[in-house]
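From the shared-data thread, chain only:
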Amino acid sequence: MGRAPRGKVRKYLVFVSHSGVDTWVAQQLAQQMESVGATYFLDADKTELGDDYSTEIRSALNKAQEFVVLLTPVAAKSAYVWAEVGSAWARGIRIVAILYGITKSELLAQPGIPVFVKGFRLADINTDAETYRTLLS
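Structure, as tokens:
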């Protein structure tokens, strides 16, 4: 990745992947990221009606230094979420997978889960508030 021009500071960009039905939870995570100095890309907040959605997402994925995926029962079945995860994985950027409303065993039992996900360290915010706070610090 290139350096920012002298005098300009490149903000740390975190791409937040989620299912559309989980937008509110993803927005809460994104707001917390912003409160600790990160810039985030969340499609619901960063795209508008009529935007070339695919181009916006690809552009943000290519610029992101980190990738956070909110894994819920609906997200685990979303081809779009898995395409975004695969793109981040292929780029080699840090991936933080957050479980919400689904356990690791339930996630891994889903058909079609990419094999590389088995190697992820998954953060479970279902019952562990400390994990949630640690993710955001």
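Confidence is low (pLDDT under 50) at residues 1-5.
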